[in-house]
Write a structure and sequence with these properties.
Helix content is about 35%, strand content about 20%. It is α/β, with parallel strands linked by helices and about 210 residues long. Strands 1-8-7-6-5-4-3-2 form an eight-stranded parallel β-sheet. It binds D-xylitol-5-phosphate (DX5) and zinc ion. The site of zinc ion has 6 residues, from strand 2.
Length: about 210
């Protein structure tokens, strides 16, 4: 499953890029929300999400790179999020936050920074729908894929099997046509791609090639 990251789209012509994704083999829209505190960059927030929701014909996979994400769960639901992912490093009461996301009727995900070990998920893996392994340091698109991620996918796959968890594995950052086959073979279910898609000559063809790879 491919989830194009809107962060790399043309913000002066979002409608065009959203319609392109609608007509492609992509499964989800990946939406990166950054607060300038959890990560050094600020992207966009609720009003932009609401605007995307009006045109998008596929689920919105919202990746919150913000501190205290529990303060905004309802707001993101109301703005149109279908999947809400919070960072492991940003949540003191992660279990409660996951419960609150589910109570709002969304799928719940946990994102791990590159330095955060998969083993820390042991006691929560059965409660989530998605684990997002960051394969770059969050904050910016267009960075180089960190190859250590391959080991983390393997380890996570093992943990999911051992615990009978339903969690899907998402990989986010530096995904491209060169590493996608390996990522799939290690067990990644959802591949986020920003620059690889939107900076290519034909974004729609690229999504379809990533999907078919
Ligand atoms: C990084 C974001 C990613 C980013 C991926 O903080 O979470 O979703 O948009 O962009 P690329 O694919 O260009 O690395
Ligand atoms: Zn992301």
């Amino acid at each position: 499953m491919i989830a194009p990251s809107i962060l790399a789209a043309d913000f002066s012509n979002l409608k065009h890029d959203i319609e392109m994704v609608n007509s492609s083999k992509a499964k989800w829209f990946h939406i990166d929300v950054m607060d300038g505190v959890f990560v050094p960059n600020i992207s966009f927030g609720l009003p932009v999400l609401k605007a995307i929701k009006k045109i998008a014909k596929k689920p919105l996979d919202v990746h919150l790179m913000i501190v205290q994400p529990e303060r905004y769960i309802k707001d993101f639901k109301n703005a149109g999020a279908d999947i809400l992912t919070v960072h492991f490093e940003a949540c003191t009461h992660l279990h409660r936050t996951i419960q609150e996301i589910h109570a709002e009727g969304m799928l719940a995900g946990i994102a791990l920074n590159p330095h955060t070990p998969v083993s820390g998920l042991k006691d929560i893996i059965q409660d989530v729908d998605l684990i997002c392994l960051m394969s770059v340091n969050p904050g910016f698109g267009g960075q180089t894929f960190i190859t250590k991620t391959f080991d983390k996918i393997k380890e996570l796959k093992q943990l999911i099997l051992e615990t009978n968890s339903k969690a899907k594995i998402e990989v986010d950052g530096g995904v491209n046509i060169k590493n996608i086959e390996a990522l799939k073979s290690y067990g990644a279910d959802i591949l986020v791609a920003g620059n690889a898609v939107f900076k290519s000559e034909s974004p729609k063809k690229m999504i379809d090639s990533l999907h078919d790879a």
